[in-house]
Amino acid sequence: MASAEQQLTEFFRQLSAADQLTMLAFAEFLAARNSAGNTVISRQPLVIPEPEVIQRPAEESVVAALKRLSKSYPMLDKKEMLSATSDLVATNIMQRTDTAIVVDELEAIFRAHYEKLKSGEHG
User: Fold this and answer.
1) The predicted structure's pLDDT at residue 41
2) Which of 14, 16, 49, 83 could make a disulfide contact with 77, Cβ separation 3.0–4.6 Å?
3) Burial (CB count within 10 angstroms: exposed 0-12, middle 13-18, buried 19+), residue 84
4) Contact by Cβ (8 Å): 117, 16
5) Which run of H or E residues covers position 77?
6) What Å distances lie between residue 108 and 3, 94, 103, CA to CA?
C-alpha cells in the first residue's frame, strides 16, 4: 500500500490547477490549525504551466478543435467551460454556422479561461 504522502501526490496530480490550489489552501489550513504557532508555514505559489499550443490545421472540425485545445490546455478544468463550448458545438450543428468561426470562438474561450486561471480568478 502506498504511503499517505504518495497517495496525496497522486490525488494532487489528478486535479485541475484550480482544484490543486484549493487542495493546497486546505492543507495549509490543516497545518496551521495543528501547529502550536511556533512555525510559520510558507506557501509556495502554484506554477501554472504555459499551454502547449498545437498548430491548427487548415481544415478542422469543431470536435477535432475541442480535442486539440484540450491537449493544448491540460491545466484547465473542462467542466468550467462545458456550457460555453457545448453551446458553440450545438449552434454549429443545428444552424450550420461557419466551422472556422466556431473554432476561433473555442480558441478564445480556452485562452480566456487560461488567462483567468493565471490571474488567480479561478473557481
Assistant:
1) 55
2) 16
3) middle
4) no
5) none
6) 42, 21, 9
User: Looking up cell 497522486, which residue turns up?
Assistant: 10
With respect to residue 81, please indicate whether it lies within any of the assigned structural domains: yes
- Would residue 108 count as lying in a domain? yes
pTM of structure: 0.63
pLDDT tens-place string over residues 78-90: 888 998 999 999 9
DSSP run (H or E) holding 51: none
Statement to judge: residues 71 and 42 lie in one domain: no
Give burial (CB, 10 Å; 0-12/13-18/19+) of 51.
middle
How does DSSP classify residue 75? Answer: T
**HEC secondary structure over 8-51:** HHHHHHHCCHHHHHHHHHHHHHHHHHHCCCCCCCCCCCCCCCCC
Q: Domain span at residue 98?
A: 62-118
